[in-house]
Amino acid sequence: MSLYKLTYFDMRGRAEVARQILHLAGVPFEDVRLSEEKWAGLKNKTPYGQLPILEFRGKVLAQSNAINRYLANEFGFVGKSAFDKAYIDSLADQFKDYLNKVEPALWVLLEYEKGDSAKVVKEIAIPERDKLFPILEKIAKAKSKNGGYFVGDSLTWVDLLIADTLTTLLGCMPGHLDGFPTVLNTVNNINAIPELKKWIKKRADSTY
After folding, report:
1. What is the pLDDT of residues 134-189, one digit of tens each?
2. Which domain holds residue 64?
3. What dihedral angle (degrees, nearest 10) is formed by the CA atoms of 160, 49, 208, 199?
4. The whole model's pTM is what?
5. CB of 73 closer than 8 Å to CB of 156
6. Which of 57, 74, 91 is a domain's end point?
7. Which is nearest to 14 in space by CA: 55, 45, 54?
C-alpha cells in the first residue's frame, strides 16, 4: 500500500510537479485521476474545494505549491542552503504570478474556452512573456555554469515547475520563447535527466 495518495484530474496540470518529485525520489504513490463526474461528488470533501490534494498519514494537504514544497523538503529537492530554499520559493511564487496571468490565454489556445487565439496571444501571452522571460533568461545565464539549473547546482522543484509549464506553453505556441535560448537550453537539460525522461516517456499524453 502506498503511503502517498495524490488526487487530481486526468492531465498534468497542477499535479505534475508533485508526481515528478515522487517518481524521482523512487517513492510509490497512488496516482488518482478523477473524471468531472467523480470530482463533483468529492469537491465538498476537500479542504478548499480544489485539486490537487495529497493524502498521507491520515493528513490532507491542498494547494499545488504547498504540496510541491512539502514533497521537495521531504525528498531533497530544495537546494543546499536556507537561501537556496528561499530563492526557490521566490522564483516559484513569481512564476505562479505569471502563470495565473497567462492561463486565460492558454485556455483559449487549448480550446478549453472559446475565444480569439490571435488576440489572446497578442494581448496576454506576449506582454506577460516580455515581463518575465528577460529576467528568467538572466537567471538561467547566471546559473548555466552550475549544471544547467535555475537555482544552485542540483535539481530543485522549481526546475520541474518551470520545465513542465513551458512544455504546455510551447505546445500551444511553438517559437514563443525563441528569444530566450538559455531558458530553453536549461529546460531541455532538465527534461533530459534520465529518470525524468523515463517518467515523461511513460506518462499519459496531455496538452496541459
Report:
1. 999 999 998 877 668 999 889 999 999 999 999 999 999 999 999 999 999 999 99
2. 2-74
3. 50
4. 0.94
5. no
6. 74
7. 54
